């Protein structure tokens, strides 16, 4: 069954106009006809089953029942990672959305190899947020992650989160293996975490000092060296394993 | 430091000829010069540091010290998944290698949407094994995963493994959440597991019967719907989290 986000309150028996993007996908690509059902998420993350009505004249959705379902991680996880080239950024946003991320913030690291030109940032974010929407539909999420850009790491890690961690290669090399598990065990439902991942060029000494000043906890992600775009997925899967499969 | 696999026994002070692929990458791409060091893995998964000597005349590697290091998962994990289109298969092999897989077997599922033509299988496997080698070098593994093809799922799941699991979407929908953790907890170091993932078209009733007959355990991978190529990575990260980070 298809799964779409409607940014409005919903109730049973309500008839809702179909936003044009959903109309295009559901009617044209998926060939929905009168009576075809789909899942619709309201603006408070509740899921409903709705069916297509009046498709020949003025297509609309009739909400027919509630479908209580929560596909969200118990915590709100923000991934902050150094800017990446187009295809890697696309890929990471898509997969992190499948794995339950709440927010992705790309930042310009001191040693970033990829650069985002200031006049291209909005265009890139628009593209990445479209990818996040489509991946959230496919993985039947209750909410759509937000993709943002911050010029400075400082602004990210000085914000208010319950837990702050950084995936630091030196921690992995030093055999640090238990801090992520310990951190997740301390978290309560709805707690927030920001997890920082350096860009491909690595994290600079200045940035490490900044992270240390902000009490950001270094965590190891196992003994294998993970690429910049793979490490956030490992972290999300590990948090899910510790909190949803244990 | 670069990391390469030499399929031979190694010992300190030994001088080794450089295989042509390594020569091309290390000398041409990475511009190694006399005295440049790299890691070399022998045929028994031991890691050594070696340096380049005699680069102007007849380049060779001199093994200078042992570097005891194990980046392997404590278990031997085989991923069996329905054949996928080129880019998804490439991507999955690369990322599963980073995450510690031991063997990847693609199979032609009853409901596979992608098909591998019989006369193209060898060419595809050659390409995928090259990707696995390169990813194993980058993630500093002790061994290179093997990528294979089997026409029948039956041949795969009737083979001898300590644990056999299948990621079955219906298990996830039914809220099954603890079997993977329980299974991993039962495993001893060096135990083997095969994990089956259906193709994009899903697993057929005939295949489910076959899996049930072979006592393959259905496991849920959390409440979000993961794409065919993402699910194996989630499983590998979860196994690493349960066994390496706990």
Automatic annotation (TrEMBL), chains A, B:
Residue span(s) of domain Ribosomal RNA small subunit methyltransferase E methyltransferase: 72-240
Pfam families: Methyltrans_RNA (PF04452)
Subcellular location: Cytoplasm
Family designation: Belongs to the RNA methyltransferase RsmE family.
Keywords for this protein: Cytoplasm, Methyltransferase, rRNA processing, S-adenosyl-L-methionine, Transferase
SUPFAM superfamilies attached to this UniProt entry: alpha/beta knot, PUA domain-like
Assigned EC number: 2.1.1.193
Catalysed reaction, written as an equation: uridine(1498) in 16S rRNA + S-adenosyl-L-methionine = N(3)-methyluridine(1498) in 16S rRNA + S-adenosyl-L-homocysteine + H(+)
Source organism (scientific name): Nicoliella lavandulae
Origin: domain of life: Bacteria
Annotated NCBIfam families: RsmE family RNA methyltransferase
PANTHER family, sorted: 16S RRNA (URACIL(1498)-N(3))-METHYLTRANSFERASE, RIBOSOMAL RNA SMALL SUBUNIT METHYLTRANSFERASE E
Function: Specifically methylates the N3 position of the uracil ring of uridine 1498 (m3U1498) in 16S rRNA. Acts on the fully assembled 30S ribosomal subunit.
Name listed for the protein in its UniProt record: Ribosomal RNA small subunit methyltransferase E
Enzyme category, top tier: transferase
């Amino acid at each position: 069954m298809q799964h779409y986000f409607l940014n409005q309150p919903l109730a049973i028996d309500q008839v809702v106009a179909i936003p044009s993007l959903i109309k295009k996908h559901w009617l044209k690509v998926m060939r929905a006809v009168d009576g075809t059902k789909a899942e619709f998420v309201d603006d408070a993350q509740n899921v409903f089953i709705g069916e297509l009505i009046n498709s020949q004249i003025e297509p609309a959705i009739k909400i027919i029942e509630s479908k209580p379902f929560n596909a969200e991680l118990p915590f709100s996880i923000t991934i902050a990672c150094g800017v990446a080239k187009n295809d890697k950024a696309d890929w990471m946003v898509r997969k992190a959305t499948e794995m339950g991320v709440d927010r992705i913030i790309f930042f310009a690291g001191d040693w970033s190899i990829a650069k985002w030109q200031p006049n291209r940032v909005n265009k890139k974010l628009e593209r990445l947020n479209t990818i996040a929407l489509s991946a959230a539909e496919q993985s039947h999420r209750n909410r759509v992650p937000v993709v943002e850009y911050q010029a400075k790491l400082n602004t990210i890690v000085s914000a208010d989160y319950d837990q702050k961690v950084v995936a630091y290669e030196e921690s992995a090399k030093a055999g640090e293996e238990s801090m992520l598990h310990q951190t997740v065990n301390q978290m309560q439902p709805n707690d927030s975490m920001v997890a920082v991942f350096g860009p491909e060029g690595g994290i600079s000494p200045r940035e490490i000092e900044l992270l240390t000043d902000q009490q950001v906890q270094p965590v190891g992600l196992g003994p294998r060296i993970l690429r910049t775009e793979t490490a956030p997925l490992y972290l999300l899967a590990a948090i899910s394993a510790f909190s949803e499969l244990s």
